[in-house]
Amino acid sequence: MLAIIIPFYKLTFFEATLQSLANQSDKRFNVYIGDDASPEDCTTLLRKFEGQFDFTYHRFESNLGGRSLTQQWERCIALSGDEEWLMILGDDDVLGGNVVEEFYKQYHYFQNISNVIRFASQCVDSINNKVSNVFLHPVLETSANSCFRRLKGNTRSSLSEYIFRRESFNKFHFRNYPLAWHSDDMAWVDFSDKKSIYSINDAIVTINVSNSSLTGMNSNQSLKKEATIKFYKDLIESKLFQFSKKQSIDILMFYEVEIKQIRGLEISEWLLLFKKYLKNFQLIPFLKLVRRILISI
């Protein structure tokens, strides 16, 4: 069974999100809505959808998402039952009408080979204008290759278009980066647990990138930078072995560049880079690193 988890805070696009659940051609899912002490009351809207799909609503007395968005996701997941599969759906994102149907239709293909399922996606603005093409994916792809495509800007990715196995979530949980920036990117590497990501390109999840969404906001750039550096460091320290040598060197460079955009590298950061360049040795990149280290000293 599938649990769809909605961490609720903003009412603006929530009706479209709920309507997309009511429009599902396959209703084999339970919805759990965790209200993060929002100043906007959604209960009147929820009454409109009673009987159209199964949902449980809970209002938390204190706001947690303002301090830790990943912890808000996790306490919303705790509202759910024993469903094997989980989806965290943004309160401003929309499922295509056949998302759940395709999940069950293709279940026998991925049930034994994947812990993370991904749908095609498309971005829209606040008035539902399409602002991107539909992003499709290889049917089976290693989490490392998927992550690398994302880092290179060759695809997009966000929380709402994924379904993941509860067992993997319980094993790893979300990394608590500021604003949860890149927490989902790391989750798919963690949750995959060395298995390939399975993509369903026959159903689309629509992602809102308006100014009210975290993705669309231009504020909090310093926190996003901090989160990006932590994400790269975790990737380098614990996941780099999953990437090819060329991909690894690119990731090491991404990490160095992100730090240099806000400050100079510390000795411990140069040592980490030196160690990882040595492990993924290629002569020219290694010599260039040594030169940069000597210049910094």
What's the average pLDDT?
A: 96
**Rg measurement, Å:** 20 Å
Beta-strand fraction estimate: 15-25%
CATH topology assignment of the largest domain: Spore Coat Polysaccharide Biosynthesis Protein SpsA, Chain A
By secondary-structure content and strand pairing, the structural class works out as alpha/beta
Domains, number: 2
Order of helices and strands: EHEHEHEEHHEEHEHHEHHHH
Instruction: Supply the CATH architecture of the largest domain.
Output: Alpha-Beta Complex
Instruction: Give the tally of β-strands.
Output: 9
- Provide the CATH top-level class of the largest domain: Alpha Beta
Unreliable segments of 5+ consecutive residues: none
Number of helices, counting only DSSP H or I runs of 4 residues or more: 12
- Overall geometry comes to globular
Description of the molecule:
This protein is an alpha/beta fold. It has 2 domains: 2-208, Spore Coat Polysaccharide Biosynthesis Protein SpsA, Chain A (Alpha-Beta Complex), CATH 3.90.550.10; 221-296, no CATH class. It has helices at 14-22, 43-48, 69-77, 99-105, 107-110, 143-151, 166-172, 183-192, 221-238, 245-260, 267-279, 283-296; strands at residues 2-8, 29-35, 54-59, 85-88, 94-95, 116-124, 140-141, 162-165, 197-208. Strands 1, 2, 3, 4, 5, 6, 7, 8 and 9 form a 9-stranded mixed sheet that branches. The longest helix has 18 residues, at 221-238.
